[in-house]
Amino acid sequence: MESVANLVKDKYKSVAAPSEGLYKDKGSKFLAFIFPIETEEDVKDHLALIKKKYFDARHHCYAYRLGCNGEKWRANDDGEPSSTAGKPILGQIVSNDLSDVLIIVVRYFGGILLGTSGLIQAYKGASADAIANAQITEKIASKIYTIEFGYIQMNEVMKVIKDLKLNILTQNFDNTCTLEVKVRLSMENQFKELLKNTTIWQKA
User: What is the C-alpha to C-alpha distance for residues 183 and 189, in angstroms, rounded to an integer?
Assistant: First the structure.
């Protein structure tokens, strides 16, 4: 039977690289840009660049989702009628089960009003096209931990790291040894149990 630790969800889908999509309706053009992101600061950076490049567009609407379970998210209509832009963009991110993703849709107005349903379809269609053109990748959610131990515990600690196939980020071997490792969420409890006799703390 699979252990409880391995039932923790730590795999999720994202995009490997930026991609673009397009939707046209009654003269209006909707340019969609999808980006892989790690933080909300990434959102601000990408949004600033798109706004600078497409400064003459009427709207720069967007939505993003962050985290293994999509726990951080936001949708922004940027002046379009409420829930006609950001929400449809976010809907495409969620329906495709993506996270660590930002989609920005830039609108150039064509002179003819599209109405509420037309706007929803346009932002949904542009986002869907960007996702369809993107390379979907699988990500593993993890946390970074620092292990502090005495030199006499070296073999014990290194065996755990080898058995769990942990990625060592930094290491320092002196009177007191420290290792910085990346631990999958599904292995977190096992990791702590195996090294309960050493000092472990999560990196901020």
Answer: 10
Output Rg (C-alpha) for the chain, integer angstroms: 22
Name residue 12's beta-bridge partners.
Answer: 139
The Cα–Cα gap between 102 and 19 comes to 11
pLDDT digits (tens, 9 = 90+) for 113-151: 899 999 999 999 999 999 999 999 999 999 899 999 998
* C-alpha closest to that of 63 among 98, 102, 99: 102
What band does 7 get if pLDDT is binned at 50, 70 and 90?
low
pTM summary value: 0.81
In angstroms, the Cα distances linking 72 to 37, 83, 165 are 12, 18, 29
Q: Are 107 and 69 in contact (CB under 8 A)?
A: no
Which residues lie below 8 Å from residue 130, measured CB to CB, with a gap of 6+? 19, 20, 21, 32, 33, 34, 103
d(CA 71, CA 65): 7
Pairing of strands 59-66, 136-140: unpaired
Joined tokens for residue 43: 């959102």
